Amino acid sequence: MNKLKKVWNENKVLFVLGFILLICIIVIGVIAIKSFYSSCDNAYCNRKVEELRNTLPDEIKNKLEENKSIVKTSVLVKNAIVYISATFNNDTKIEDAKKAMEVIAPLFTEEELLIYDLDLTIKTEDIEKGFILKGARNTNGNGNIVWSNKKESSETE
What's the pLDDT at 156? Predict the structure, then answer.
């Protein structure tokens, strides 16, 4: 017993620091496990990604191609995101292109708009003289399409 008291008295600071280190390791471990292996409890994770109507991509393409300034369209559904791309004539203005893409939202049902995010890309045939613009509409937002506020080009600065 005396030997134990002697070791304690000589190394009291080291034992306390070791105990604090052990508590810190346990706390960090618990936080890491909860972060990586927890159940999803936010709105994005709780969405049930169901099969989108098979006709919807074709409906989107047909609706966009009614616009004479659109040259090419593509629609890709991946997980909970619908990627829609449209290529416009070189003489199309950015504002006109944005308005042309607004016809997409009414094609979705309310339930689909709660599940799927929209990722939009509009560009002109000749990117160097025209523009590339990204837009998005997410389920957590106000429902409007938000466009990037920067006219992008393929040139690097």
Answer: 41
